[in-house]
């Protein structure tokens, strides 16, 4: 949303953890910690869940552009479907330059295993926070393909990250607070409530971006369909 010629303001797709049992502690990035995280853990809970988690797609400016409810698990193939629904093929102009995702290394392996070329033009770095905390340096595939530092366009001349790759993480912290509110809502009210909260938050963020002269805007229908190269501010 915040204007940029790179069109990279594409946040991450991330579990929003409406289920608190999904929240993992921040672990040091050594192999022992990574291995320990993959050990099955028995956990009890004294409440019921109707859904597994909510997925959000968040622009790096903080604006949330799509949401999906996942039932059962945060499967990579489901993530792929969610992303394709967010950036459908009939809107080639919507295709992002980068997608930060905390599990992009597994996502990329999934794409290659299935010879899925939908995201070939998109950079798939892991967001900086998760890359430093949860991805081992011994994973050559991850280091070679998803290390955000390998995407030079993401680093400014001052050596700092150009984009806030933690925007989704920050949105999740906010979104997770609604867990107890929506826990037992019927499906229509559940969706209405969450979408309204997102819309209100988006309006506030756009207002703040405008005040900072960041030029938040919507892309035109023609630009999204690829029939126009110019994207007038709407
Ligand atoms: Zn990785």
UniProtKB/TrEMBL annotation:
Highest rank taxon of the organism: Eukaryota
Protein name, per record: Cytochrome P450
Organism encoding this protein: Mycena sanguinolenta
